[in-house]
Amino acid sequence: RFLDYLSDLCVSNHIAIPVTQELICKCVLDSKNSDILIKTEPVKEMSQTHEYLSIEYSEEEVWLTWTDKNNDHHEKSIRQLAQEARAGNAHDENVLSYYRYQLKLFARMCLDRQYLAIKEISQQLGVDLIFLCMADEMLPFDLRASFCHLMLHVHVDRDPQELVMPVKFARLWTEIPTAITIKDYDSNLNVSRDDKKNKFASTMEFVEDYLNNVVSEAVPFANEEK
């Protein structure tokens, strides 16, 4: 409820309130208050042995770490938390729920390009890490959706990205220039734009595959959670 309350204070009618965002950013992201947040550890390589095959393989997993009220340190992979929560473990379910509301708060703090929050949060939660959780089918749908919102507001809707205006097929005669050259075309040479496109290549491919699967299913959203 505390995290949900803070995230609601960041917006009004789906529009960010910069002053409130800034106050909440400075308070929540202050190192003195780090104990209220669950930290997302960089991807750890886990060497596992398959249950049926005597073959060891490495798998990427994201780990969460937190401190409880007794100052005890805990860490667990996000996938394991999801499995335990699904099996009925109330503690792990609460931890995962708290983390989901934390992601929602982070997304709201960054809404409408609030760079104070974007700078801090993008360092903790990079594109590759968020994408790994978005695409992980072992995680619940609501958690994956929270990672999607975070990706949008922390990495996509920010500099140097810009809104691409669709081609207008009807225009005023006075708006048409009398002369035009290839140098006037804004995408002529832009290395940074290509770099950003490559950065999101795997994310774009995942979204395309996901939407194609939705279209091909007879009843795409029969599962209410999905």
Automatic annotation (TrEMBL):
Domain of life: Eukaryota
GO biological process terms on file: release of sequestered calcium ion into cytosol
Domain RIH: 1-41
GO MF term set: calcium ion binding; inositol 1,4,5 trisphosphate binding; inositol 1,4,5-trisphosphate-gated calcium channel activity; phosphatidylinositol binding
GO CC terms of this entry: endoplasmic reticulum membrane; plasma membrane; sarcoplasmic reticulum; secretory granule membrane
Entry-linked Pfam families: RYDR_ITPR
Protein's UniProt name: ITPR3 protein
Organism this protein belongs to: Pomatorhinus ruficollis
